[in-house]
Amino acid sequence: MSRPRPRARSTEQPRLVAFNKPAGVLSQWTDDPHWPGLARLLALPGLVPAGRLDADSEGLLLLTNDGALQARLTGGGTEKTYAVLVAGTPSAPTLDRLRAGVLLGDGPTRPARVTVIARPSWLWPRERPDPPGTWLDITLTEGRNRQIRRMANAVGHPVLRLVRHRVGDNGLDGLAPGAWQDRPLAFFVP
Q1: Which of 31, 54, 96, 130 is catalytic?
Q2: Residue 54 is a catalytic residue
Q3: Can you tell me the distance from the alpha carbon of 98 to that of 138, in angstroms, rounded to the nearest whole number?
Q4: pLDDT by residue (tens digit) across 104-162?
Q5: What residues contact 14, with CB distance under 8 A and at least 6 apart?
Q6: What pLDDT, on a 0 to 100 scale, did the predictor assign at position 30?
Q7: Domain-by-domain residue ranges, the chain?
Q8: End-to-end CA distance of the chain
Q9: What gap in Å lies between CA 24 and CA 37, rounded to an integer?
Q10: Which CA distances in Å does 90 have to 3, 21, 152?
């Protein structure tokens, strides 16, 4: 039996790009039958998303050509912060349930930081005004599939709008929907 050959190291410089993903776009390069992919908005060959946002969600999506950086960004422990509009007004005990962790079909979530906030002043308008509800600032240290939506449903307050605005030390920093910019890698160097 032969040993696997070591993979050649890329000669490309590591790169990190922040992209403000609009709602209605997949966090993958290719389209599917219902939604457009990133290639409709970006021409950044060699970069892959570090994490995902579902098609209905908006906000910060990081892309990189560095596999180790991608693993650090998507692994447990990297904080991801969202502005979330939920239906209704969650009670104090409901907010405490979100903070403590919610039992989902795939097990309990880690505790989350959850704060009631005013509609963020930096948030861009959409074609239709946001429906009435309560804005929450939610920070997670894990990234399960549609986690915030499932947590909010589990406590009886479905998500009406979800915008990721921070991953680790990277924020949207004024990026308009569909805009992108290169980011320094210094914070990620071990």
Answers
A1: 54
A2: yes
A3: 9
A4: 999 999 999 999 999 999 999 998 899 999 999 999 999 889 999 999 999 999 999 99
A5: 64, 65, 66, 69, 185
A6: 81
A7: 16-74, 80-167
A8: 35
A9: 9
A10: 56, 28, 10
How confident is the model at residue 35, as a pLDDT?
A: 84
Domain range 16-74, CATH class: alpha beta
Listed residue (153, 175, 151) closest to 58, CA to CA: 175
**Do 16-74 and 80-167 show the same overall fold?**
yes
Measured CA to CA, the distance from residue 149 to residue 157 in angstroms comes to 9
- Both tokens of 156, joined, read 């009886």
Which three-class secondary structure string do you get for the chain?
Answer: CCCCCCCCCCCCCCCEEEEEECCCCCCCCCCCCCCCCHHHCCCCCCCEECCCCCCCCEEEEEEECCHHHHHHHHCCCCCEEEEEEECCCCCHHHHHHHHHCCEECCEECCCCEEEEECCCCCCCCCCCCCCCCEEEEEEECCCCCCHHHHHHHHCCCCEEEEEEEEECCEECCCCCCCCEEEECCHHHCC
Amino acid 93: pLDDT = 98
Architecture of domain 80-167: 2-Layer Sandwich (3.30)
